[in-house]
Amino acid sequence: MRWIGGLLVVAAVMLTSATPALAHGGVVGADLRIAASLGDRELTVIIRRVAAVPGPLRVDVVNHAGSRGGTLRVGAVPQNGGPATARELRLTDGGGSAGLDLQVDRVGAWELLVDDGRETARFPFVVPDDVPPAAEWTTTAGFTTAGGLLLAALAGAAFGRRAWPPLVLGGGAAAAVVVATTAALLSSSLPPQQEIDPVTGRPLSIDAPDAGRPHVNLLVDATLAAGERSPLDLRLVDGATGRPVDDLVLHHDALVHLVVIGPGGQFAHLHPVRVAPGEFRVWFRPASGGEHRVHAELERRGGGVQLPDATVRATGPPVAEPLPGGPGDHDAGGMTARITASTLVAGEPSVLTAEFGAAGQPVRDLQPWLGMAGHLITTGPDGTLGHVHAMPDPTAAVPDETVATGGPRVEFVYTFPTAGRHRVWFQVERDYQVVTVPVEVDVTAAEDGS
Length: 450
Prior knowledge:
This protein is mainly β and 450 residues long. The chain has helices at 2-17, 134-159, 164-187; strands spanning 32-38, 41-47, 55-63, 70-78, 85-91, 96-104, 108-115, 120-127, 216-221, 224-225, 230-238, 257-261, 267-270, 273-276, 279-284, 290-300, 304-306, 309-315, 328-332, 335-342, 349-358, 361-362, 366-367, 374-379, 385-390, 409-415, 420-430, 433-443. 15% of the residues lie in helices and 42% in strands.
């Protein structure tokens, strides 16, 4: 009877191997992670992939350390109109993750609504029209059928009194394997599956070119005072038409990355929430009076990454940040960060490394933040802003913030555009706390570094 046990294993493999073929092949159907600075909370909203329509939509919310707990109201509504479904979600103090299930009943464009009682963030997402290609469907159906027939043949051989039913069923299983294998081999020569439109969730027309988008103008409206928390209202305007820009795509797990640098070297990395088409809001407490540079990093569909900026003023006396010091050991969120830098020559790639330890031991529980192992933000004597990432293993799936296996070493490669003194901020996450390490480095001119 050993051969029966072996065939049972083969049949089980056939049945389970068919499942991945049903997985969605486009980025629209994947989990979405969206960073959000909502009111006085720093959140990451995770919209899980919808498996069936009608069916549940899983939403998880990560609350960062330093953000208060409390209750949010989370709902989903179709963008083309329809009833909203909403539920309350309770966040814990001090960082952590909480989730709930909503219901969706149609494919296409939706908005996730997250309300903190003062304002409502609106996150666009898509429930895709998930139809697998014919070759994929044939391969899946073939292996599934083969597995079922093989199990039936085994049952007939073990318990039946006639010899011919197992032979017929076994022959059918063999034929199904041949069909499935042929479809799998032919699929490699077929053209790739059509790209999914991130607005509708349906295949893009091959006759519709994806034209580039004009420059985005950033308009900031704010009344700021040193030491007081106030809203920064952002308007994104198309440089050609003057119309609101509402075709942003997720760029490193955010619709907009906002870096605010104060006159005394103060630093904030925020993620404004979308409150209406082309309109975003974030709350900000300046530590100093004077002019603040506001840098946005965003990506339009078909238009690539753009870096519009603006200035705002805060009333109150100017305050200078303490000088952060150069490479070496720095205290950082209960850890020690050892900063090293090499090849600090303008126009040449530099390697900047942060190695984290605590209590004399290497730190190995860093969490990914914004889909990356770490972030490096720089500004130079001419005000130019740089933002680079410590990339994860490209062959591995990027985990969300609930997975803490990173560290101790986080490495960046950046080419400083100009000589002079540059301020650099290393950012990583641990225990749901975003840790920022400021450092100053001196970059030499190319002729001086030869």
